[in-house]
Design goal:
Radius of gyration of chain A: 31 Å
Structural class of chain B: alpha/beta
Distance between the termini of chain A: 31 Å
CATH architecture of one domain in chain B: 3-Layer(aba) Sandwich
Number of helices of chain B: 10
Low-confidence stretches of chain B: 1-12
Structural class of chain A: alpha+beta
Helix content of chain B: 25-40%
Helix content of chain A: 40-55%
Strand content of chain B: 15-25%
Number of strands of chain A: 17
Radius of gyration of chain B: 18 Å
Oligomer: heterodimer
Order of helices and strands of chain B: HEEEHEEHEHHHHHEHEEHE
Mean pLDDT of chain B: 83
Shape of chain B: globular
CATH class of one domain in chain B: Alpha Beta
Mean pLDDT of chain A: 86
Largest sheet of chain B: 5 strands, antiparallel
Number of domains of chain A: 2
Strand content of chain A: 15-25%
Number of helices of chain A: 13
Largest interface: A-B, 26 and 35 residues
CATH superfamily of one domain in chain B: P-loop containing nucleotide triphosphate hydrolases
Chain lengths: ~425, ~250
């Protein structure tokens, strides 16, 4: 036990370099686990965004593209679905509910989504959680809008505030539907999904603000006022996509096939889950690269530790000779130095885990609001513990390098230190 | 029968010899072209021997052989009736821990350790010495007693890092470490060369008294012949051991 105590005292004697080594290892561990947390958090966020929807229908395109623009509001639709096709699908006996989505306009950088009140009833996120209103309610008037939590927070809107929808998707738009302003009717609770950053209006409203438009520009000399438009037939001609819920999941593939082979119009129906899998396949390379980089950082930290121990070896040869003179075997010297590396690595891992959770606690609310990314604070899972164990073993093995050198030196030194 | 065989094989070995080297040939493996030969060297129990060895006379190699840190290529190193040369390396380490107390010229102590831990260190490797140290209480008591006899104030022993001691104090702590658990042999490699004249004398007085009280045999190496009168016997290392630089052919 004295020998262990002396080993620790020896380490304490070099506390500054030892501490820096431990910090380097800790930061690398924090990075490694942090990347993993963000990765799983991001995956979970994506997977949580859409739930309870069996099929997403859109114009014919890749399933990933359809998923991204319809649910995540990333990218744009290439084409629309005509209203009759939508009604055809809605009329199918397997369909329990169907929610149309109409995209293409924006409000100060936030996307505007035209839909029906059913959207608030059927949209599910984070394992079957429904949308709830923090204030107000669904749209009842033609020019009512329901805004997501982030829209309300960023722009400071309250129920009753007027908003103007811009044509197109830029944050700064020069073509505004300023002749037909909307009123905020409801504000949704925070969901951590793209819904938070969306302005919802009725499908008819989307139609109404575009009656006097053609090919993305106002038709000159033909202006329809907000009051006049209320009297018009606002049945939409086309929508961007639709979310479909089926009565029975067993019918999923049958309906999907029927839609994909729909004769009147080229359509696509996708399963959100399989489209997400496609997405993971796509970002998998980037994730692997990130993991490889953080593994390299850990390896660098361990190398730093080996360097630190190696540089102190020469001044510690005297220590080795003393230990040998009192009967320590060269193997004991080997064990001492390996144990030293082990202590440093384990301390580094422990500190790294503490730093990670401190950072998570500190940054979680910020990341949630700014990036819409919910990072769960869970105890380390089995895979993470296995990784940490592997790093501890790798650290001890790396410690063998200076230890073997000390072993050889102490064999060659004998009673006196030769320099 | 066995005794008879042993006696005929080693006619010059007296029963009271604690050290008996014969026909030892040693060369550092590989790197250094340095070899050492000892034809015959014997020390009987309880003696105080001064080995005069100028630097370069193979002093440290001789001591390494004696203490079993290195093993000769041939020959016999009899210590307390055991041929250390025939023991495997780990057994030699155990043997050294059990039967030798070693004092270096300087830097004897682990600088960051407390005085008491430095003294107790050999006991971790030598169960026999641990038992003997505990025969009159705890090992700590015995260490404190030895340190007290060697003139180290009790206030210095605990929690005090060895690096803060003076050189003279360090040598006395080293002596206590060598003596704890009463090993049969005390080997000192120029223990006084870092001390001034007065301290030298005082240190040797204390060391002799403790070695005598423990009934141990003392082998001390020095280049300082003026210490000679205080020892039972003065031998010249270059007369015992023949060292040769350059490749042994």
């Amino acid at each position: 036990m004295i020998i262990l105590r002396l080993a620790l005292q020896s380490l304490r004697n070099r506390w500054l370099t030892a501490l820096l080594t431990v910090i380097a290892i800790a930061v690398s561990i924090m990075l490694l686990l942090g990347v993993e947390k963000v990765r799983t958090g991001a995956r979970q966020s994506f997977a949580d965004t859409i739930s309870g929807t069996d099929l997403i229908v859109g114009a014919r395109s890749g399933s990933l593209q359809l998923l991204l623009y319809s649910v995540f509001r990333i990218g744009n639709a290439t084409n629309n679905i005509t209203w009759p096709s939508f009604q055809d699908i809605a009329a199918r006996p397997e369909v329990a509910w169907i929610v149309p989505l109409s995209l293409g306009d924006s409000h100060r950088g936030f996307r505007v989504l035209g839909t029906t009140p059913d959207y608030f009833k059927h949209y599910r996120y984070r394992r079957a959680q429904g949308l709830t209103f923090r204030a107000g309610g669904p749209f009842s008037d033609l020019f009512d809008a329901v805004i997501g939590a982030d829209v309300a927070a960023t722009l400071g809107y309250k129920v009753g505030d007027p908003i103007v929808v811009s044509h197109g998707l830029g944050a700064v738009s020069f073509v505004a539907h300023d002749d037909k302003p909307f009123r905020v009717a409801g504000i949704l609770e925070k969901t951590g999904t793209p819904v938070d950053r969306t302005v919802h209006v009725s499908l008819e409203a989307i139609e109404a603000i575009h009656v006097d438009w053609q090919s993305g520009a106002r038709v000159p000399g033909q202006s329809v006022t907000a009051a006049e438009v209320r009297e018009m037939d606002l049945k939409p001609k086309a929508i961007t996509a639709a979310l479909v819920g089926l009565k029975s999941r067993l019918a999923t593939f049958r309906v999907q096939r029927a839609i994909n082979e729909y004769a009147q119009e080229p359509l696509s129906a996708i399963l959100p889950g399989s489209a997400l899998q496609e997405l993971w396949g796509l970002v998998g390379t980037a994730e692997t690269a990130l993991k490889a980089i953080s593994a390299m950082v850990v390896a660098t930290a361990l190398l730093g530790m080996v360097t630190m121990i190696l540089t102190t070896l020469n001044e510690r040869r005297r220590e080795m000779a003393i230990l040998r003179s009192v009967g320590a075997r060269p193997r004991t010297v080997l064990g001492l130095l390996t144990a030293e590396a082990g202590v440093l690595v384990v301390a580094g891992i422990a500190l790294g885990v503490v730093l990670l959770y401190a950072a998570l606690l500190l940054l979680q609310p910020y990341v949630d609001t700014v990036y819409g990314l919910h990072l769960p604070i869970d105890p380390p899972n089995r895979a993470e513990l296995a990784t940490l164990g592997a790093i501890a073993v790798a650290g001890c093995l790396a410690g063998l390098l200076p230890a073997l050198r000390a072993y050889r030196l102490s064999l060659a030194d004998g009673m006196t230190v030769r320099t | 029968m066995e005794l008879m065989v042993a006696a005929t094989a080693e006619p010059r070995a007296a029963p009271s010899d604690v050290i008996h080297l014969s026909g030892v040939r040693f060369a550092w493996p590989g790197r250094m072209p340095f070899s050492l030969t000892v034809d015959e060297f014997a020390v009987s129990a309880g003696r105080r021997i001064l080995l005069i060895g100028p630097s370069g006379s193979g002093k440290s190699t001789f001591l390494s052989l004696l203490c079993g840190i290195v093993a000769p290529q041939s020959g016999k190193i009899g210590i307390l009736g055991t041929d250390v040369a025939r023991l495997p390396a780990s057994a030699r380490d155990g043997f050294r821990a059990e039967h030798f107390g070693i004092i270096f010229q300087i830097f004897n102590l682990l600088p960051y350790g407390s005085v008491i831990d430095n003294v107790l260190l050999p006991l971790s490797f030598a169960p026999g010495r641990r038992r003997r140290a505990k025969s009159r209480g705890t090992a700590e008591d015995e260490a404190a007693r030895l340190l007290g006899r060697l003139g180290i104030e009790a206030s210095l022993t605990h929690g005090h890092s060895a690096a803060n001691l003076s050189v003279g104090q360090q040598q006395r702590v080293a002596a206590a470490r060598a003596l704890i658990g009463s090993p049969e042999l005390i080997v000192a490699d120029e223990p006084t060369s870092a001390l001034d004249r007065n301290t030298q004398g005082a240190f040797l007085d204390l060391l002799f008294a403790e070695v005598e009280a423990a009934g141990a045999t003392l082998i001390m190496v020095s280049h300082d012949e003026s210490l000679g009168p205080r020892f039972d016997e003065v031998l010249r290392l270059d007369e015992i051991a023949v060292s040769r630089r350059g490749m042994a052919s």
